[in-house]
Design brief:
Elements lengths: L4 E7 L5 E6 L4 E7 L5 H18 L3 E8 L5 H18 L3 E4 L1 H12 L7 E7 L4 E8 L4 E9 L13 E4 L15 E4 L9 H10 L22 H5 L2
Parallel strand pairs: 1-4, 4-5, 6-9, 9-10
Antiparallel strand pairs: 1-2, 2-3, 6-7, 7-8
Helix pairs in contact: 1-2
Amino acid sequence: MSERTAFLAVETSSNVCSLALFTASEIIAERTDTEPNAHAKQVALFAKELLEEAKQRGLQVEAIALSSGPGSYTGLRIGASFAKGYAFATGKPIIAISTLEALASGFLQSNAIPSEATIIPMIDAGRMEVYTASYTSQLKELSAPEAAIITPESFQKLLDTPAFFIGNGAPKCAQTISLPNASFLPFDCMARNMQKIAFERYAEGRFANLAYWEPDYIKPYNALIAKNKVLNR
């Protein structure tokens, strides 16, 4: 793989719209918008800016890394639509990466933790529900992604283990989950988190099938109907 090989990464699973351009060894540039509902207007603009920067630096963008969920239904659809359009137009592959796995990977790259620790990424799913999974400090999956309602009994199997609860769903769980060795950290979903996994999967040839691939929503989408529309039927 050439040192000039770069990927465009797209993260739209949360309220943060984040895109990044990176090589295997460096984060070249990033674009981020934390304004609510900014994804639709910013994704294509951010991508254009990052692709132009890649061109100016003489980098070859060979794939698009995409946060595949779980997370915001609307955000995931926007990211997936852009990624598929880009892939069809350029012939470049999509590397789909679990948002939870990317969170854990990004956290591991920026923090030193005990080798016996467990990482539990959490994405807010409303009220006391989160999308979550668990990983070892070597990023081995211990429990598969799921939607979980948090109670005082949650994660008691980690009673004697250092546990790092990360992501935008972690802070609200701090008062409910009582574990002596637990840390609750609001680590953001960012495109840069996918760097390490993306290059590993590119080398393995693990690409999304454009014809059939869909984001991992975990839960079915439930559209809310306005009361006035129900009353006026």
